[in-house]
Amino acid sequence: MEDKLNVGLIGYKFMGKAHSNAFQRIGMFFEPSRKIVMKAICGRNESWVRESAQKYGWEGYETSWEKLVRRDDIDMVDITTPSNFHKEIAIAAAENGKHVFCEKPLALNLKDAREMLKAAEKNNIKHQIGFNYRFIPAIQLAKKLIDKGKIGKIYHFRGTYLQDFIVDPQFPLVWRLDKEVAGSGSLGDLGAHIIDVARFLVGEFDRVIGINKTFIKERPLVERMTGLSGKAQSDAPMGEVTVDDATIFLAEFKNGALGSIEATRFANGHKNAMSFEINGSKGSIKFEFERMNELQYFSSEDEEGVQGFRLIQATEGIHPYMQAWWPAGHVIGYEHTFVHELYEFTEAIAKDRHPEPDFNDGVKCSQVLEAVDLSIEERQWVEVDSL
Predict the structure, then answer these.
(1) Which tens digit of pLDDT belongs to each residue from 180-192?
(2) Residue 201, C-beta contacts closer than 8 angstroms, at least 6 positions apart
(3) Structure pTM?
(4) Residue range of the domain that includes 37
(5) Cys bridge to 372: 210, 223, 343, 379, which one at CB 3.0-4.6 A?
């Protein structure tokens, strides 16, 4: 087995920076089976991508993703571009024998997602989608508690993802507000994370029905993107917002559990409030991302008179991934989720095992997203497996 894994990263802004940091940290805190080599980063603007390569620690850069995926010295391609590039890059990388990691949502629509999965399977490459919240130690602990039957039969899942960064009507028309580039708005960007966590912890969706709203119909055209934000001239022309600002939907899972999911970018005061609660016959679990090191757990089997939600600090060595980091009680943050997921993917490549979540999970998520959109259009329940 080769002792090195050469990585090519496509994208250098918000997610590109997060992934670059993760590749830097894997060898520092974990013991990877193959040395991670940050071979090349790719972006269209040469001056910006050159600067990113130097700043983030990449050996070199490319301005053409087509050239990057054809390079013989690249083993793995990591895609952190806007959603409209995912399909073309992933399929080309797979056809060139590269293992592929792709950020979520997997594609602009279900059809494209299925084509990406087909290409990955046909070319026998490792593939993973970037549902990083699965790799939070507290959520991994929730999974263990559920699998051990600690909360019994699941009755309810309530998930919300609340942000407020576009409440200002003068916030510019960034790519996340353009359906042709992003695929969808709050549902596909934020709701996809909640959908994946629900599938991970509860199980598969059976049917859904939803409602959505675009509160601000037009915004100033963006001049330059900076992370999630952007800048526009004071006299910039206006452009149409073509995605949802907020989506709420009800769901029934195949195991009989009921679900409600809300995703919005108009929850004033909430910066990145991803949270969920799961209620079962023997107990409940609560999680809030803005307190991501904590998990709340209730057991109805505790002694009467002292029952109540207990607060678990998931920062001890016994908790998933925490042994690699700091002593108990020393918390970790958002950036660590990317270290965990990319460590798992690179280990799957090195040890020839199947990574999770993979492109099939991306397809399953896209199936729910499309079912929600169809239910809104038709104003009726839609069975997820009918798509």
Answers:
(1) 999 999 999 999 9
(2) 139, 142, 143, 146, 157, 276, 278
(3) 0.95
(4) 4-133
(5) 210
